[in-house]
Structures are given as structure tokens and as C-alpha cells.
Amino acid sequence: PQPEKDYTPARTSWGVFDRPKNISEAYGGGNKMGAGVNLSPEEEARRDAETEETLARLKRYREKRGDGNRLEKKEAKRIESALDLARRAMMRGVYAAAVDALEGVVEFCSTGTEVGGTV
Q: Which residues contact 74 (CB under 8 A, 6 or more apart)?
């Protein structure tokens, strides 16, 4: 006979092996999450450190990606006039002229922005 605290599950989706009936109690419980949960000072400090690290990584990523945005803002008038010229050329069926107009400004655009995605 099996010990009282262990059992073999009827379904085999996670494998059929003996394990405690209440895994949380047997292995020390789980993380308590949600509103109204008080964290210990160590957990709070760890969470704050992780948040700071995440924000720092996000800032570095945005700065790295932001080079195109700065050029895009600096050359906004030139890009807008090229887009306008390309639209007019496309309406007239002069596709080569539209491509030429946009190729001149594509180096200033970032693909992650609305204007850059249009170009």
C-alpha cells in the first residue's frame, strides 16, 4: 500500500509517479502574490532592485534605438516633403520617382516610429 501522504494521479498528462497530495505544503508553499500581501524587507529590496535594473535596461535600449528618432526629428521637414513627393509620384504612376524620393531620406528614419514605418 502507498503511504497516506503520497498518491498516484489518475491522469498521465504530467506523468504517473508518486508525489505528495498537497505539493505546496510538502515543499514549503508558493509565492504569495496580489493585493494586500506584505513582503518582507528583503523581498521588497530584491523587488526594488529588479525594478531598477529593468528600468535601466529599458533606458539603455531606448537610448540605443533613439539615434534614429533624433535624426528623424531633425530632418522632419525633409522627410515630410519626400513623403509628399512620393505620394504624388505614386498617384501618377511614376514609381521610380517615388522610390528615388524616399531613398534620399530613408537613412534618417527609424523603422520603430510612425513616420519611419511609412517611409
A: 108
Residue closest to 110 by CA, chosen among 46, 75, 67, 76: 67
pLDDT digits (tens, 9 = 90+) for 1-44: 444 567 776 666 666 677 777 777 777 676 667 777 787 889 88
Residue 28, beta-bridge partner list: none
Dihedral, CA of residue 89, residue 91, residue 95 and residue 100, to nearest 10 = 30
Note the pLDDT tens digit of each residue in 42-82: 988 998 999 999 999 988 887 777 655 777 888 889 989 99
DSSP 1: -
Partners of 24 in beta bridges: none
The grid coordinates of residue 117 equal 514605418
**Grid cell for residue 84:** 509628399
* Alpha carbon distance 50, 105 (integer Å): 40
